Amino acid sequence: MILDQFKLDDRVAIVTGAGRGLGRAMAIAFAEAGADVVITSRTRSELAVVAAAIEEVGRRAHIVVSDLAVDDPAALVDAAIEQFGRLDIVVNNVGGAMPTPFMNATAASLEDAFAFNVTAAHRLVQAAVPRLLETPGGKSIINITSTMGRLPGRAFLAYGTAKAAFAHYTRLAALDLSPRIRVNAIAPGSILTSALEVVAADEKFRSELEQKTPLRRLGAPVDIAATALFLASDAGSFMTGKVLEPDGGLISPNLDLPVPDL
C-alpha cells in the first residue's frame, strides 16, 4: 500500500530544536510513523513534554539538553547509537536571528546568524555521516530554512542571508553525500508557532498576514511535520538536493515590519 511508504518503523531520528514549534511537531510525527527519536533543545522541561507525547504513541524518546551554538553535536549522534543502536534521520531545525534594521546589522550579527543557522548544522551533519553510513537502507538529512531565504524582506538581512546560504548548502551537501544519504530542505512560510504568536494575536495584523498569503491562511506546525515525514520516509526516496516550500503560495513577503526608510 502507498501509505506504507510513509512509515518509519524502527528507524531512529535526531531532531534539534525539538522542545516546541516545528521541532516538536516533527519529532512527534516521526514517532507516530514508527521512529524512535533523540530530541534536543536548551530547555529540559519542554523536552520532557515532547518525550511524553512520543512515548504515548508507543515509541522511545531520549532527551539531550544542549545548546548547539556552543556544544559538541557528536553527543547527539553518540546518544542515538547508545540508546537505539542506529541512526537514520537527522533534522537540523535549530536556527534564527532577530529582525534588525540595515544600519544595525553589524558584521558580527551576520557572522552570528551564519554560525547559528549554517555552521552549527554542518557540525552535526559531519558528526552524523559516519554513523548514518553504518546503517543499511535509505538515510535522510532534513534542513529547515525559511521563505526569507528566497524572498526579500526588510530587516531580515542577516537571517535571510543565512537561510539562503543554508538552502544552497543543502544542494551542495546532497551532491557530496549522494547516493547513500539524501539531503533536502524545507523552507516554511508564516507558521503559527510561539515565534509568531505575538503578532498573530493581533487580529488586524493576523488578517493582513492571511490576506497576503495566496491560500488565505497561516501555516500550522503539522504542515511542516507532514513535509518532513515525506522527506524522511521512503515516500521521498527519489528526492535529494531539493528545497520544498510549504508557505501557502507566497511569491512576496507577507510579513512587512515597520522599519523606517533610510
From TrEMBL:
It holds the Pfam family adh_short_C2. Keywords: Oxidoreductase. Belongs to the short-chain dehydrogenases/reductases (SDR) family. GO terms for molecular function: oxidoreductase activity. The keyword Oxidoreductase applies. Signal peptide: none annotated. It comes from Nocardia mangyaensis. InterPro entries: NAD(P)-bd_dom_sf (IPR036291), SDR_fam (IPR002347). NCBIfam families: PRK07814.1 (NF005873). This is Short-chain dehydrogenase. It comes from the Bacteria.
